[in-house]
Specification:
Ribosomal Protein S8, Chain: A, domain 1, four-stranded mixed β-sheet, single chain
């Protein structure tokens, strides 16, 4: 939904209403020390530090992170890596992330699967297969510089979206 621009009358009314407003700042002990040293050095009032307690370095805020954890956000696209080899899965993941990022999508689901379960007496044809390769490699691939530039956050998916066999990838704004 696009925000509309305020009319000149609305801007004038807002400015007239809040012209005498004073910004309230509750100082923390660290902020008080910073404020005292800032005044003595420059004489100008200090800038108020941003409240970044709920925002991670990636830019994903706490509310969005909590909604991801609860499974409240619906992924806009999905990539299923089941049955692909390592090289093919890596190529598919790279192409997929470039494509969804260029389309402006924010949340995608990467399904890796959980891998084969360990059994006491596996069938002989399964003895030489590695278990859960894509599940282990996908998070590593997502940290590579080529792909990391698209990504703001990676979290295990909620149970309704695949749980431990899938990952939410929250993309940066393009």
């Amino acid at each position: 939904m696009k925000r509309r621009e305020p009319t000149p009358e609305e801007v004038a009314l807002f400015e007239a209403t809040f012209k005498d407003a004073v910004r309230l700042v509750v100082p923390t002990p660290a902020a008080s020390r910073h404020r005292a040293s800032s005044r003595s050095n420059t004489g100008a009032p200090p800038r108020t530090p941003r409240a970044a307690a709920s925002v991670s370095p990636s830019g994903v805020d706490g509310r969005t992170r909590a909604r991801l954890k609860r499974g409240d956000l619906e992924p806009e696209a999905r990539l299923d890596l089941h049955g692909l080899g390592e090289a093919a899965a890596h190529r598919a993941l790279s192409a997929f992330l470039r494509q969804v990022s260029s389309r402006g999508m924010r949340l995608v689901l990467i399904v890796t699967g959980k891998g084969l379960k360990e059994t006491a007496d596996p069938a002989p044809e399964l003895l030489d297969r590695r278990r859960g390769v894509l599940r282990q490699l996908t998070p590593r691939w997502l940290k590579e510089p080529e792909l990391a530039r698209y990504i703001a956050e990676v979290q295990p998916a909620h149970r309704r979206h695949g749980g431990g066999g899938a990952l939410y990838v929250y993309l940066r704004k393009s």
